[in-house]
Amino acid sequence: MAASTPCYSVAQISSYIKGLFDQDFLLKSVQVEGEISNLKYHSSGHIYFTLKDEKAAIGGIMFANYARGLKLRLKDGMKVRVSGSISTYEHGSSYQIYAKSITEAGLGLLYQRFMETKQRLEDMGLFDPSYHKPIPKYAMKIGVVTAPTGAAIQDIVNITHRRNPFAQLILYPALVQGEYAPASIIKGIETLDKMGLDVLIVGRGGGSLEDLWAFNEEEVARAIFDADTPVISAVGHETDVTIADYVADLRAPTPSAAAELAVFDVRAYADAVRQKKERLGTAVHGRFEQKRLLLSHGEARLRRFDPRTRLNEYRLRTAYAQDGLESAVKRQLEASRQGLSEKEKQLHGSMEEAVSRARERLETALLDLRSDMDTARLNAAHRLDLSAARLDGLSPLKRLGSGYAFAEAHGRALTDAAQVSAGDEVKLYLKQGSLLTEVKSPEETDHGK
Questions:
Q1: Which of 35, 206, 230 is nearest to 114 (CA)?
Q2: Is 137 helix (H, G, I), strand (E, B) or coil?
Q3: Percent of the chain's residues with pLDDT above 70
């Protein structure tokens, strides 16, 4: 009777397989060359990655104690040579390479394709900044070409609603990874470009070089370049750079940053409008106040040079002169009377002869006094008549009464026909009333000749 086949636990089988790996001399110290993918620097200091070529892939890990001595900064797509051992992890039933050192072995295939495409499009001029269209400052209709699910569209929606709830988002649900992703992204760009939107956001969340590869395809780059609508690229994280970033009108480091760049903050805009309105109101009020002060000064100057004011001044001066003249005559008469009284007193105490002589002298003095008074009165009256005549000659009203008129145009007095042109309005002030006339043809005459 044949013996029954023994049964083992999963742990026993995993331990046995691990023993086979550990006892294999070749696998204890091996060098493997391949392309890095799915690279991750863990917070613990460990480095996780996948090493692959055209036919196969193997997981890899470099523990922190070895990673600290690594001088090379690893990147997805980099072709490297890994030295270490190959073993299996019992709890996961998978084998992987435990790296002790990693050296660069040349550019990986994807990275090489990336550089070739970049150089070719750059030589064609697709990256020239002169082709970049400006992003509208106040975009209200924003198109988004990305996956309908995932953090990217959620971040864009949340930031848009926070900054401007009135903005309209139009999503084209595109494939952003895999074989059919380039065609889907191109279709999304072309579809939204025909809708007359303000700006397009094209992108996705982070990932490996393979995950982001659709945005490195030349066809996608040409679709972005050919779009009439300004395009913001938002692919991966800040450290991720794709061909789409070079050809887009503006590169955003993340989808969230793209939303910040595309959507203006409506509250900040309202605050700015309010501040400008307040500054405008202050400026207008200040300008009106300035003009009001200028008008007040102009009115004061006009009143100062008003002919009626000047005439009143001359009348007042004439009145003062007349009052002074009358006072002088009164003082002289009073002084003469006092002298006469004194002489009369002296005569009463003198002899009859002296009285007679005094009377004779008195009569002579009276005659002289009357003559002097008449002469002084005539001279004063003559000076008064001259002043009155000179004042009357300066009166604009008298000239107006003689048929003359005072002409004014453009707010100033006219003294020369060259001051007006045909069609200008001229205001004529007469002795009674005024006339508003229109110049037909100014004629210049030199009255000084």
A1: 35
A2: coil
A3: 90
Say which DSSP state 448 is in: T
- Can you give the pLDDT at residue 288? 82
Q: How many CB atoms lie within 10 A of CB 249?
A: 20
Here the tokens at position 196 are 């007359």
Q: Is the pTM of this model over 0.70?
A: no
Three-state SS at 438: strand
The two three-digit tokens of residue 267, written as one number: 């509250």
Closest CA to 164 of 145, 187, 136, 189: 136
pLDDT tens-digit readout, 151-186: 899 999 999 999 999 999 999 999 999 889 999 999
Structure token pair of residue 395: 């009166």
Mean pLDDT of all residues belonging to the chain = 85
- Sheet with 199-204: list strands edge to edge: 168-173, 141-146, 199-204, 231-235, 250-251
CB 173 within 8 A of CB 183: no
**CB contact set of 386 (below 8 Å; sequence gap of 6+):** none
Strands 78-89 and 30-41, bridge-based pairing: antiparallel
Answer whether residue 267 shows pLDDT above 80.
yes
**Neighbour-count burial for 189-199, b at 16+ CB within 10 Å, e otherwise:** beebbeeebbb
Cα–Cα distance, 236 to 140 (Å, whole number): 25
List Cβ<8 Å contacts ≥24 apart for 314-322: 314/391, 314/394, 315/391, 318/387, 318/388, 318/391, 321/384, 321/387, 322/384
Residue 149 and residue 297: Cα distance in Å, rounded?
73
Strands 168-173 and 141-146: parallel
SS3 of residue 284 by DSSP: helix
Residue with tokens 């009284």: 341
For residue 348, pLDDT beyond 50:
yes
Which burial class, exposed, middle or buried, applies to 9 when counting CB atoms under 10 A from its CB (0-12, 13-18, 19+)? exposed
Q: CA dist 194 to 40, 184, 198, 200, 357, Å?
A: 40, 16, 11, 11, 137
Residue (of 78, 68, 82) closest to 39 by Cα position: 78
- Number of Cβ within 10 Å of residue 36's Cβ equals 25
User: How do residues 319-340 score in pLDDT, each as one tens digit?
Assistant: 778 888 888 888 888 888 888 7
Backbone angles phi, psi at 134, to 5 degrees: -70, 145
Residue type present at position 210: E
Is the dihedral angle over the CA atoms 245, 249, 253, 258 positive or is it negative? negative
